[in-house]
Design goal:
This protein is about 25% helix and about 25% strand. The protein contains 2 helices and 6 strands; from the N terminus they run βαββαβββ. Strands 1-4-5-6-2-3 form a 6-stranded antiparallel sheet. A hairpin with a 4-residue loop joins strand 2 (about 25-30) and strand 3. Helix 1 (about 10-15) packs antiparallel against helix 2. The longest helix has 21 residues, at about 40-60. The protein is globular.
Length: about 110
């Protein structure tokens, strides 16, 4: 599955409004938390995560406003989101795992 980085949190919110009905999985890879959500709960959770990213960009002066933290599969018909946190930044040769994942249950693990 291909993911697209979305640098604008406002655009991410537009995409969130297009998520499809069904059961969604929320996974916090740091806290080892996983739960099943309705599509409405997934929208609310994603909105909260987008607001978290916005607050990082406002409070961290060294962070570029164009830094991409949120990735989505097919922006026109989103089925999965990967959200990275500030610990992902740096000079690594490989990308660290996303902090949070929100995806349709039917996809299995992503």
């Amino acid at each position: 599955m291909r993911f697209y980085g979305i640098p604008s949190e406002d655009r991410v919110l537009e995409i969130v409004n297009n998520i499809v009905q069904g059961e969604w999985i929320f996974e916090d890879t740091k806290e080892k938390e996983r739960k099943v959500l309705s599509s409405e709960e997934a929208k609310k959770l994603l909105q909260d995560l987008v607001n978290e990213v916005k607050s990082w960009k406002e409070s961290l002066s060294t962070l570029s406003k164009a830094t991409v933290f949120i990735f989505v599969s097919e922006p026109s018909e989103p089925k999965a989101f990967k959200i990275y946190d500030t610990s992902s930044l740096g000079c690594s040769t490989s990308l660290t795992p996303p902090r949070w994942k929100v995806f349709l249950k039917d996809l299995g693990d992503i």
